[in-house]
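Entry:
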Amino acid sequence: MSPATLKELIEDRDILALPGVFDGLSARLVQSLGYPAAFISGAGLSESRLGLPDVGIMGLAESLEGAAAIARRTSLLLLADADTGYGNAVNTYDTVRRFEQAGLAGIMIEDQSWPKRCGHMSGKTVIPAGEMVEKLRAAVEARRNPAFVIKARTDAAATDGIDEAIRRGNLYADAGADLVFADALRSEDDIRSFARRVDAPVSVNMGLGLRARATTPLIPARELEKMGVAVVIYPRLLTTAAVRGMQLAMSAMATALASDTVTESPDLQVSFEELNELLGLPELLALEARHVAG
């Protein structure tokens, strides 16, 4: 039996949990834990590649390059963050073509005005719903493989309220979106209402790692499933965990330097062997043994 497509996983009765990955290492880690799919966090790409927050500074070329590099290094089905499609409907058409050709399983397009920003930041604005509908129609027309997922995100809940987010969600579903997402919903009731009233599979964002900045309440995946949610993404879990891990490691290094001691810290670091195992060194060595003359 061939592996399921991302669209098939979305349409499955069980909720699909997508960790947010941001580079080859995080993707290999998620793959090693048995996940079939993941979400490429646009914020994570901007933060890790540019050292900048998710405020619309990273453009198409950098986003595509980052996503393509991850796709080359993993068998995960990857849903990429394509921000606003990087322009109008024509630009969105081209964006879909590029991401599909690069080996992604789908992309997310949002209805924010450019420059966009993280959905949990203040100061967002959205484009007219009709303009977003045309972007989505162009996206659907652009894809060559009908299994390539078009995810439509609306940020209208923060700017115009939950009813407008629901209205847009249905418009976007009618335009051909396979998955619909309202970012920064503020209550369980809003999540339940959006999932019930939008006629398409619905995704939500659980902001593990956002702490007090999270606008959406943290809800267990099985509870979300009971609410009618098809997909839950955790876009900031690994980026924030990585930063905390590096802070702890550097703190341990500072202590060692101050005390003129050297100690192993297995609670802070994986071993050299474990790292290379994760990155596929045994397979590369086997390939070398088969094909490189000694």
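Residues 6-242 form a domain with the TIM Barrel fold (CATH 3.20.20.60).
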